[in-house]
């Protein structure tokens, strides 16, 4: 039985800051941000969006009533979750009106979480071929104003339906993985911004890629020639490029142009949105699938997932006949085109706006947020969400 991605959706907040303007405000040469780091714009979430609402908005565009009945497992990957105990998946389950006879859980391993979710979903479908699993990767990436990581922030979510006989891409065996206990990026419970050793993180991202790529080659006897494209986890768009180039050598000369061209396509949405942590690899897959003009069904796509801390995994899938017809290309381009540009001062004000941390209640201006699903406020220590369509 073939199992894989049957549908894929995406959501990002409707405000952004331009990297040239941010660079000027930080007294940095804009080329460092746009070329050295490879980012053009960065999504800025309003106070009415959190990991739950971003994920629910991403799922909204791909679910039919039939899907809502067939989904019996919701797996929510995040590293910017809202509760230490209750799974964010449960809020999404209610907001979307899913079948009550479902499992709903949250998984965590930094940016790797959604890949863990996909593999869990695959096991579930292997046992229950008639079911569908909703896998969500949703995050707000925050390093802080005036920090080295500021240029690599962002916000957004990817939602995928994993099923048997998928219409977009199978997820094939083998999958190879690697774990090491390292402190390259982490966020203690008392902090709302991440701690990162940026250079160390970059080194580990690349060495984990070399490790899993080596394992994959040994297990499959495949090489770069077998791949039409490789998608990478993208904390910023230069990162995956460095990893890709690290496995090029003279023997792979004839494949390099193809993989480099496809890499350029795969980074298009990421460079306009910024880092969305768990969803970043899958946003790059969406970008590749929606924007390429010549990748035919039957093509093999490699995927490299990396979560700091750290876990890396490499696996691949085959594009299915008619995959382009299942994609939400026009909606995603409209979403990105209709965003509002913020000044640096506006971005800083929004960044510093926070929800109460002392247990007090708050009502939030959902009417100012064009998203369908918003955080409406907090009362009795509980977040209250609004689905404007229901
Ligand atoms: N024009 C063009 N490129 C320029 C430039 C300019 N004027 N100035 C600098 N650059 C290049 C540098 O050469 C460097 O390129 P390289 O990486 O190919 O060598 C790149 O811009 C970044 O410069 P650097 O000095 O290393 O930046 P930094 O010290 O500010 O750190 C990060 C950059 C990415 C490490 C930092 O933003 C960070 O820590 N981000 C978070 C990291 C992260 O997300 N980790 C998780 C990985 S999963």
UniProtKB/TrEMBL annotation:
Keywords: Transferase. The active site is at residues 79, 111, 233. Belongs to the thiolase-like superfamily. HMG-CoA synthase family. It comes from the Bacteria. Residues 177-258, 260-352 form the Hydroxymethylglutaryl-coenzyme A synthase C-terminal domain. The keyword Transcription does not apply. Residues 2-165 form the Hydroxymethylglutaryl-coenzyme A synthase N-terminal domain. SUPFAM superfamilies: Thiolase-like (SSF53901). This is Hydroxymethylglutaryl-CoA synthase. Coiled coil: none annotated.
């Amino acid at each position: 039985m073939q199992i894989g991605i049957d549908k894929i959706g995406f959501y990002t907040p409707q405000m952004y800051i331009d990297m040239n303007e941010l660079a000027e405000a930080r007294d940095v040469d804009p080329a460092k941000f746009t070329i050295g780091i490879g980012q053009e714009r960065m999504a800025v979430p309003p106070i009415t969006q959190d990991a739950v609402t971003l994920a629910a908005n991403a799922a909204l565009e791909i679910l039919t009533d039939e899907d809502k009945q067939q989904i019996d497992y919701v797996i929510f990957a995040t590293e910017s979750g809202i509760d230490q105990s209750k799974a964010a998946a449960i809020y999404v389950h209610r907001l979307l009106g899913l079948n009550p006879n479902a499992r709903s859980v949250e998984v965590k391993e930094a940016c790797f979480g959604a890949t863990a979710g996909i593999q869990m979903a695959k096991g579930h479908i292997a046992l229950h071929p008639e079911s569908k699993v909703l896998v969500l990767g949703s995050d707000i990436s925050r390093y802080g104003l005036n920090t080295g990581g500021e240029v690599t922030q962002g916000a957004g979510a990817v939602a995928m339906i994993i099923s048997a006989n998928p219409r977009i891409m199978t997820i094939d065996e083998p999958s190879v993985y690697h774990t090491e206990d390292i402190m390259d990026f982490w966020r203690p419970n008392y902090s709302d911004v991440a701690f990162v050793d940026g250079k160390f993180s970059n080194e580990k991202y690349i060495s984990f890629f070399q490790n899993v790529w080596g394992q994959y080659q040994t297990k499959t006897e495949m090489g770069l020639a077998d791949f039409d494209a490789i998608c990478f986890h993208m904390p910023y768009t230069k990162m995956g490029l460095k990893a890709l180039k690290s496995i090029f050598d003279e023997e792979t000369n004839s494949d390099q142009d193809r993989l480099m061209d496809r890499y350029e396509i795969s980074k298009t949405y990421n460079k306009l949105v910024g880092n969305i942590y768990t969803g970043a690899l899958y946003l790059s897959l969406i970008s590749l699938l929606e924007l390429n003009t010549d990748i035919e069904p039957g093509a093999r796509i490699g995927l490299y997932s990396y979560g700091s801390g750290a876990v890396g995994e490499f696996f691949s899938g085959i594009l299915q006949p008619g995959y382009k017809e299942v994609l939400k290309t026009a909606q995603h381009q409209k979403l990105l085109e209709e965003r509002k540009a913020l000044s640096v001062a506006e971005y800083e004000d929004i960044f510093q706006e926070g929800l109460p941390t002392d247990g007090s209640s708050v009502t939030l201006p959902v009417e100012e947020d064009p998203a369908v699903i918003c955080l409406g406020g907090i009362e009795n220590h509980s977040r209250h969400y609004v689905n404007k369509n229901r």
